[in-house]
Q: What sequence folds into this?
């Protein structure tokens, strides 16, 4: 009897030990060495459709960088962008979640390097290869016989403040006007025996009214794009016959907004629009090399007033003729020769490698009657944009 009890007890002990062994093996299998490990993200990559292409040249001064990235554990990713003009670029931005990034105000004729760091929610990261691209050399205005640009524009009144209901003469001045323009390089002309220029012709149509054509003689020379002479621009100051209501700006009367527009945009000198008038000195339309923050004098004081231009940045402009990366050039006026830039007038030109893309002008004006009494104020706004072009 004692032998049976002993045998049964031994059997139970063996079963218990077996169960313990299984538990220990199972526990060992669940140890640190076999836990699920979070993997590093895949390094960001660049396909053929990602721009700008690696080692590409002649890129615009505003670019949209793009890349592709993924994580084997499907963790959300954040990106850090390193960008600059050295082959070890500094951090430009971080905490990004999009795989595109627009960089603006790039310098011309410059090589830029960039790479992207992807980081998952566990802090694991991966770095892309370093890429580079080069921007266009300094913009030069396209001048060749046969070049042609077409524009549509609108002139309208904004912030109108009248003493009473608008009379018919006032309504005529403040009516919205749709207009179009065709600018062509007609020929290469020599002025004053030695000055090599190109003759630009502009034909403006307001609604259905075709205005007299005008001409400008311009050329790229040395440090910039210069204007040397003009003919046919609405250059008159005080009209010969004052209308019932006229526009008053800086002490001058104007009988039409078009006359005012040409006077302001081109700094034309009061006189006959039929004469060929030479700029003395020539007007510097664009200063080369054109770069952001560059500022130059377009007209000196007294000719007929001080006007500067300043490249304030670069911007992408969409038009019916295409999308263009432009320099945004501010026009600064000191019409009253007060030594500071006037606040009642502002304007911008948008210039790309194919020419003028867009132009805006806003002027605060007075409306006066024949007795020189003010009958209202308003902001005159003029805008135009490129619709088609052809370059030789």
A:
């Amino acid at each position: 009897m004692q032998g049976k009890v002993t045998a049964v007890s031994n059997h139970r002990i063996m079963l218990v030990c077996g169960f313990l062994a299984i538990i220990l093996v199972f526990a060992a299998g669940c140890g640190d060495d076999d836990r699920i490990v979070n993997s590093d993200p895949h390094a960001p990559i660049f396909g053929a459709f990602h721009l700008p292409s690696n080692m590409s040249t002649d890129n615009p001064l505003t670019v949209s960088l793009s890349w592709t990235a993924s994580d084997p554990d499907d963790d959300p990713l954040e990106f850090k962008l390193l960008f600059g003009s050295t082959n070890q670029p500094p951090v430009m931005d971080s905490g990004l979640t999009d795989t595109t990034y627009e960089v603006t105000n790039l310098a011309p004729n410059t090589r830029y390097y960039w790479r992207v760091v992807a980081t998952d929610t566990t802090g694991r990261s991966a770095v892309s290869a370093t890429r580079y691209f080069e921007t266009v050399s300094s913009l030069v205005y396209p001048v060749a016989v046969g070049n042609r640009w077409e524009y549509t524009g609108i002139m309208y009144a904004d912030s109108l403040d009248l003493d009473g209901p608008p009379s018919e003469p006032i309504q005529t001045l403040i009516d919205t006007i749709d207009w179009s323009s065709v600018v062509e390089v007609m020929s290469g002309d020599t002025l004053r025996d030695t000055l090599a220029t190109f003759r630009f012709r502009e034909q403006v149509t307001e609604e259905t009214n075709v205005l007299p054509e005008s001409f400008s003689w311009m050329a790229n020379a040395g440090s910039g794009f210069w204007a040397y002479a003009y003919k046919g621009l609405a250059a008159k100051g005080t009209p010969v016959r004052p209308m019932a209501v006229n526009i008053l700006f800086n002490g001058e009367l104007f009988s039409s907004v078009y006359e005012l527009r040409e006077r302001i945009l081109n700094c034309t000198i009061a006189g006959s629009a039929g004469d060929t008038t030479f700029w003395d000195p020539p007007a510097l339309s664009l200063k080369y090399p054109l770069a952001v923050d560059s500022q130059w004098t377009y007209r000196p004081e007294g000719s007929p007033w001080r006007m500067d231009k300043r490249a304030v940045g670069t911007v992408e402009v969409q038009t019916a003729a295409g999308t263009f990366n432009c320099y945004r050039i501010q026009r600064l006026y000191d019409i009253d020769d007060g030594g500071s830039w006037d606040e009642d007038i502002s304007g911008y030109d948008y210039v790309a490698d194919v020419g003028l893309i867009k132009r805006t002008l806003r002027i605060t004006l007075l409306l006066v009657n024949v007795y020189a009494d003010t009958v209202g104020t308003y902001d005159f706004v003029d805008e135009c944009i490129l619709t088609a072009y052809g370059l030789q």
Remarks:
- The two ends are 119 Å apart (CA to CA).
- The helical segments are 2-29, 168-174, 257-266.
